[in-house]
Amino acid sequence: MATITAAMVKELREKTGAGMMDCKAALKENAGDMEAAVDWLRAKGLSKAAKKAGRVAAEGLIGMSGDDKAVALVEVNSETDFVARNPAFQDMVTEIAAAAIGAKGDLDKLGAAGYGSKSATVADTLKEMIGSIGENMTLRRTAYLAADNGVVATYMHNQASPGLGKIGVVVALESTGDPEAVKTFGKQVAMHIAAANPQSVDTDSLDQDLVERERAVLTEQAKESGKPEEVIAKMVEGRLRKFYEEVVLLQQPFVHDPDNTVAKAMEAAGNDVGSPIKITGFYRFALGEGIDKGESDFAAEVAAAASGS
Description:
Largest sheet: 4 strands, antiparallel
Distance between the termini: 33 Å
Helix content: 40-55%
Order of helices and strands: HHHEEHHHHEEEEHHHEEHEH
Oligomer: single chain
CATH superfamily of the domain at 56-146: Elongation factor Ts, dimerisation domain
Number of helices: 12
CATH architecture of the domain at 56-146: 2-Layer Sandwich
């Protein structure tokens, strides 16, 4: 039987992130063959991941990677904020965000992408991390934004470390003005988006289903006034304008200067940088938004943890 040394166990732990006893068992099962032990742990990790997959993962981190011309966002979820503070988890999200540049917003492509310098894919690495840490994790979404004739500005809120946080925003701005000045204004816009959560850049790009649902609600409310149809129609249009001010980026009051809209601030910034500025798109990822966390039974969770399930 091959002799399993502490150095071998350490090397396997560094390669896989698995626990010490699991690494020792893997080496014993595979007569000290390092590559076979890695595969054995990966298979074991997949088994563990299947057990965890039913658990709600709504914590985690938003990851961001890129430069002034192109930026990618990812959301990687875990079950607890404790895991989100784990350096190994943070390193993984950083690597996934770097890989997301090549995926250009395609989640399936990102899952199949290579992970760093390793031969494993992003999806395989995530499953290995589930087996190592013991929590369900998901690669929930990704986005990509580029600016050929301008800059992509970013903002990360509640930053845990560079490029990682709770709310990530990227915004593309077209302009031939001074790039650094455009980027500075873009950072302000990104911060505004983080705070105000607009749904679109302008009215034309707003989801028309959302507009029609709002129109239907406003119409029913206006009918309660008992006024004539033509008056009701005007009331609805007036209230829709107010709705647009709440959800359309360019019509929102600019958080850095509430007396002006974002559109007016953009016009003024264009004069300052020496060329008009146009906001062409944005993405805002807020950690866990839209995930139904459900009702938890704390006593049951403690019992499950105590039993090791």
